[in-house]
Amino acid sequence: MFYKAIDFFLQMCYNQSMKNTKLSSKDVYNFINPSDLKDISVIEAAYRKKHPEVSKQPMAKSYFALHLILRGEGKLVTPNGEYPLKKNDIFVRFPNEVITYYDYDETPFRYIFVTFTGATVISYFKRLGITPSNRIFKTSEDLTKLFKYLVLKTCEYPEVNDIFAAGCMHLIFADLAKQSASLPKNKYDVKESYVLNAINFIQINLSNRELDADYVAQYLNLNTDYFLRIFKNVMGTAFSKYIVAKRMSLAISLMDDGKMSIREIALQCGYEDASYFTKSFRLAYNQSPTEYIKKHIDHIRKNTKASDKD
């Protein structure tokens, strides 16, 4: 009954509001007003005819994002694996993780992306089964219209575009919920529940130097060896590698912000010894933090200027 109600509401929206969702021949960028909405707050909704070179580099952001591929083929590279991308794919970016996505020369991308934050997002992701290892979905005709509608219509309501954009995102998640409801349901897995709790705990404790397997296992009231086994079974990677990857992703995000010294970033990522942090960073990215900053200095300066304006 619940999903029938969603379907009726969505269909009403489509019939009334989405008769014209044709994208223009130019890129479209909508920067959403800063919002005090706590459930979902949209930052940007944009359409790109061409994937810019700067966006093809390994990069971490501090927010969630949905990308809808309208045309082309390419690849998504994440800490959890590599995934092919093609027309009608939707993929998810998670906060503070370093990912790379690029198109092939012979099949260039056209795509829509929406960036956002919010407490409700985490709840939605859990209910819909969206995880770092399950992040790619197929769009539908109606869902594609919703993405286009969000991009095209947001600029028409400049004074309240944060509310309008948040409403569109709820509808997008509602449509994804319809897809999720039609899939076979897995039985409740207590191991996955433990690991999900561990991931949330890790995310908010990355700056804690005491964060290790014993620390997390104690929080979950589990034996450490048992915790390490179920973590690897569920995540497909060792706990130690996961922690380093998350800390390095956070480091990239902080460097891109351009507000902290390397020493401060090291501390924020849970490293008391800056030289050990540098060694870990080099092992992860084959370059030192200083070398990374020099290579991306123009991008970092842009982020810093934008932040200063805010």
Question: What is this structure's SSE topology?
Answer:
Blueprint (H helix, E strand, L loop, with lengths): L1 H16 L10 E4 L9 E8 L15 E8 L1 E6 L2 E6 L2 E5 L6 E4 L6 E8 L1 H10 L7 E3 L2 H13 L7 H21 L8 H14 L9 H8 L3 H12 L3 H19 L4 H7 L5 H12 L3 H7 L1 H13 L1
Antiparallel strand pairs: 1-2, 2-8, 3-6, 3-8, 4-5, 4-7, 6-9
Helix pairs in contact: 1-4, 3-4, 5-6, 5-7
User: Could you tell me the strand content as a percent range?
Assistant: 15-25%
Mean pLDDT across residues: 83
Sheet/helix structural class:
alpha+beta
The helix count comes to 12
Share of helix, binned: 40-55%
Going by CATH, the homologous superfamily of the largest domain would be Regulatory protein AraC
Q: What strand line-up does the widest sheet have?
A: 1-2-8-3-6-9
What is the class of the largest domain in the CATH system?
Answer: Mainly Beta
* SSE arrangement, N to C: HEEEEEEEEHEHHHHHHHHHH
Gross morphology is globular
What is the C-alpha radius of gyration, as a whole number of Å?
Answer: 20 Å
User: How would you sum up the major sheet?
Assistant: 6 strands, antiparallel
> Number of DSSP strands?
9
CATH-defined architecture of the largest domain: Sandwich
Please summarize what this structure is.
By secondary structure, the chain is of the alpha+beta class. It is 49% helix and 17% strand.
Overview features:
Arc Repressor Mutant, subunit A, 2 domains, 3-stranded antiparallel β-sheet, 9 strands
Write a structural description.
With 310 residues, this protein is of the alpha+beta class. The chain folds into two domains: 2-181, Regulatory protein AraC (Jelly Rolls); 191-309, Orthogonal Bundle (Arc Repressor Mutant, subunit A), CATH 1.10.10.60. 49% of the residues lie in helices and 17% in strands. The protein is built from twelve helices and nine strands. The strands form two sheets. It has a six-stranded antiparallel β-sheet with strand order 1-2-8-3-6-9, with helices on one face. Helix 5 packs across helix 6 and helix 5 crosses helix 7.
